[in-house]
Structure formats: C-alpha cells, structure tokens
Design brief:
The chain has two domains: about 300 residues, Methylamine Dehydrogenase, Chain H (7 Propeller); about 70 residues, Immunoglobulin-like (Sandwich). The protein is about 5% helix and about 50% strand. It has one helix and 35 strands.
Length: about 400
C-alpha cells in the first residue's frame, strides 16, 4: 500500500470511526463530523460480528459459506472475501497479538486463524466446543465461550501457537462471551432459553475455580468492559446490565437495566461506551462517567466496532434534532426537501439501508424529488449530518 493510502487510514483511525452492521449493510459513523453513512458495503447472510483491525473492517457472516469473512479497506471500502468451511456457521472474530484474526466456527467446533493481509487461513484449532461463540485472548492463550446453544457451560482454553486445547473451565449454562480482567475471567451466560436466569460467572485463572456467580437475570449474551465496569447485553429483553469488576457488585440487572438495546457494544480509545439499540434505531455514546453524550440514527443497528476516539460535533452534546425536513409526509409521487445545504447531494435510503434515490439541492436548499419509483414504506433522507424520515403510501 502506498504511503498516501496509509496516511488516509491513519487519519481515519485518529478522527474516530464506528462501523455498524445495519441489516444487510455496513454503516459508518465519522465521530468527528458526525456524518452517518448508511452503507459503505453490502454484507452477506446473517452478518454477526464486525471488528476493526490493521486499518481494515472485518465482518463475519454466519449464514454463508462463500464470503464468510469480508474485509473492507477503510479508505476506499474495497472488498475482499474469504470462505470458511461448509455449513460452519462462523460466529465472531478477535485480533491476536501476532496480527492474525481468530474466527470461531460454531458448527465445526473449531477456531480458524486468518492472515488479514492475504485473507487466507493460516492455521486452526480443533476440538473447541460445543459451539464456540465469542472469544478473548491473553498471553498466547485463547479463551472461547462454548454454550452449546443452550446445552453447554464451558470455556475452552487453547494455546494459539501450538494449536492445542489445554483446559476446559466450567462456567454457567449457555456460556456465550468472555472478558478478561486482572487475572479473572468474566463469562456471560444466558441460562436456559426463556428462564430469566442470566448470570456472570467469575473464574480465577490462576486456579480455574469459580470465584462468584452473579445473577443478572434476563437472557444476556455479549459482553465488553469499560473503565472497570463489565457491560452485558440482553437486546431482546431489558437491555444492558452492568457489574463492577473490582467489587463484583451487580450495578444494573434485568429489573433495573443501565439502558435499552445492546444489539452491539464497543469501547473506543478514550473509554467511551458505544451501544447499538436495534429497537429504537440508534447508536448511543456514553462517556467514562456513563453520561450520554451523543446519539446517531442508524437503521436496525447490531454489532458495532469503533476505533480512535469520539471527538464530538461542535463541542459535543446530544443531537437534539435534524435540520432538514420533508413534505408532504406521507407522500405519493413527489417530496420536497427543505433546509438542505445548497448544491450538495441528498440521498434516500430504504428501511434496509440501501440507496433508493439521490439528487442535488438547488441554491436555495430546496429540492423536489420524484418518488414514483419507490414502493410503499418508510424512507430516510440524508444530507451531510442531517436526516429526516418520510413515508410513501400505496398508489
């Protein structure tokens, strides 16, 4: 890659980027300008996880054999794909200290090590199960949550270099994700389906024994840590729960969630917590004191990855509204967009995040758009950092 290309990547990372699985698309947020791009790339069936690594965005698609792992260059969004097995149902990925990616193959009971530069499988670790999902790595050891899709309670420990399984730790029912902190492993366990038995099992890595089993209720799955707090997500239940990782106190459980959502969570370089809320169609950013500092509208947001730091918009603060509007709403054949920046492009996105139309505003910021080719439904108009929704009714 040219030095110019590397410079673009570094600028992108420093300014702050968030990438979100948004339906069948990869959405992008520039956290410096606040610009939300609903689609920088099209994803495959059941996209499940996204990470940022070595200047690339990687997406794991669990429902496809060709294009299981997608790599997007973050300066051009050029796409490279890799297939991983047949019917493996690959689940998640994490970056490793040697620069490779670990990708869990849920129905193959294995973890693949992928070279991100060549997009080839470098090695694999077999015998990790049942049904490996999210992972964590430290000191050349890989810890994989193996919940057996409701029947397992294991965390499998493997040596990354030798590719050998070293130990199996006992967590709780349906162990789905793990976080490492200060010699402890925090395993988020969903419990039996519909039982409201969600828990966080704390394991002392020096002994392999359980230190505590913390009841949080609900059906939590994914977890992440920020500023000494473990956040666990139950997006189809109460939302996000939290645990103090030093005192092991449950701060928020299913009866008193920290917030709604949790379809995806990530932490940026400043320790700010980003949360996807699929039900409300928004991404929220919380500072290190858990104050809400920003919201972004994103269609059906799920897994999220962030890099760099949140720098705010015009000094920060929560967005309170949009500067453009659409009328009539609902509409049949024509819409008029007002308040848009003169001479700039506006784009119309459907509910899946795909571009349904675009135009350029006039000198007065007005734009009349023919929508006769749009099917009945809800659409979003984007102009710069502003957006507005409108409905098209049946003709």
């Amino acid at each position: 890659m040219s030095s110019f290309g590397i410079g673009l990547i570094l600028m992108s990372l420093i300014s702050g980027d968030a990438l979100i699985i948004s339906g069948g698309n990869l959405a992008h947020i520039d956290s410096e300008t606040g610009t939300v791009t609903p689609s920088v790339g099209v994803l495959h069936t059941y996209p499940n996880d996204v990470i940022i690594h070595e200047g690339f965005a990687f997406v794991v698609n669990s429902g496809v054999d060709t294009g299981t792992l997608q790599r997007f260059e973050m300066d051009t969004w050029a796409l490279t794909e890799l297939g991983l097995g047949t019917g493996w149902n690959c689940w998640a990925s994490i970056p490793l200290a040697d620069g490779k990616l670990a990708v869990s193959a849920t129905l193959n009971n294995s973890v693949c090590m992928v070279d991100p530069g060549t997009m080839q499988i470098a090695s694999s670790i077999n015998g990790i199960g049942p049904n490996p999902e999210w992972m964590a790595a430290e000191n050349n050891l890989l810890y994989t949550a193996c919940g057996g899709w409701g029947a397992g309670e294991s965390v499998v420990v493997a040596n990354i270099t030798t590719g050998s399984v070293l130990d199996t730790l006992t967590a709780g029912t349906n162990c789905q994700s793990v976080v490492l902190e200060g010699g402890l492993l925090f395993a988020t366990c969903s419990g039996a389906y519909g039982s409201d038995e969600g828990s966080v099992v704390v394991i002392d890595l020096s002994t392999g024994g359980t230190t505590a089993e913390l009841a949080v209720g609900g059906f939590p799955a994914f977890s992440t840590a920020a500023n000494g707090i473990l956040y666990v997500s139950d997006p189809w239940g109460a939302g996000v729960y939290s645990v103090d990782m030093a005192t092991l106190d449950v701060l928020h459980d299913s009866s008193d969630p920290f917030c709604s959502g949790g379809n995806g969570m990530a932490v940026d370089d400043s320790g700010y917590l980003w949360i996807s809320d699929g039900m409300n169609g928004e991404i929220r950013v919380y500072d290190t004191a858990e104050n809400l500092v920003q919201t972004y509208e994103v269609t059906s947001p799920a897994a999220i990855a962030v890099s760099g730091t949140w720098l705010g918009i015009n000094g920060g603060g929560v967005e309170t509204g949009v500067s453009i509007s659409v009328f009539p709403n609902p509409a049949v054949n024509l819409i008029t967009v007002t308040g848009a920046s003169p001479g700039e492009r506006i784009r119309i996105f459907d509910i899946t995040g795909r571009i349904a139309g675009e135009s350029v505003t006039g000198g007065n910021g007005l734009n009349t758009v023919d929508i006769t080719n749009l099917k009945a439904g809800v659409y979003t108009v984007i102009n710069g950092t502003s957006s507005a929704r409108f409905a098209v009714t049946a003709r």
